[in-house]
Write a structure and sequence with these properties.
By secondary structure, this protein is of the alpha+beta class. The chain is built from one helix and ten strands; from the N terminus they run H-E-E-E-E-E-E-E-E-E-E. InterPro entries: Dup_hybrid_motif.
């Protein structure tokens, strides 16, 4: 009985690992082809090119999408919600796992997801958050080892 249970657990772990490997490969194969997380934007900032500080150089590979109106934010690929953080009373961050990659969407106004949700590509996840005079979302991409990637390079640009 113990041996049978061990093999069932081992088979489940192998299937889970294979699914994660397949999901990672599927995400990596979309590099440069991923849909943009917003449909309407007036400006895009590739922070990897604008990350010089007066005192030191700080690498910031995030990409910011700025709009003059509130717009919906969409998932760029199918994945699972790792967490929804409430940064303060009105700012939320959503971390979504795509295989062994993690994408953080911040700030999100009124997120429509919760931890554990499975999402599809182009699925609605929340709204752009108003900051100062415009609406914006910042995207940060990491892998399992917390290595940061320049998010700008992963999108398909019009």
């Amino acid at each position: 009985m113990r041996n049978a249970l061990f093999f069932i657990i081992l088979a489940f772990a192998a299937n889970t690992l294979q699914a994660q490997i397949d999901s990672t490969k599927a995400f990596e194969s979309c590099r440069g082809k991923l849909p943009l997380p917003v449909k309407h934007f007036t400006k895009v900032i590739d922070n990897s090119k604008n990350s010089k500080n007066v005192c030191m150089y700080q690498f910031n590979p995030s990409t910011a999408f700025i709009s003059d109106k509130q717009d919906s934010v969409f998932s760029i690929h199918e994945g699972s919600v790792v967490s929804v953080y409430e940064v303060d009373s009105s700012n939320f961050a959503i971390m979504i796992k795509y295989g062994q990659y993690f994408l953080v969407y911040f700030p999100i106004d009124a997120p429509f997801l919760k931890k554990g949700d499975y999402i599809k590509a182009k699925q609605f996840i929340g709204f752009l958050k108003k900051e100062y005079e415009d609406y914006r979302i910042q995207i940060q991409l990491y892998n399992k080892q917390m290595k940061e990637f320049v998010a700008y390079n992963w999108f398909k640009w019009p």
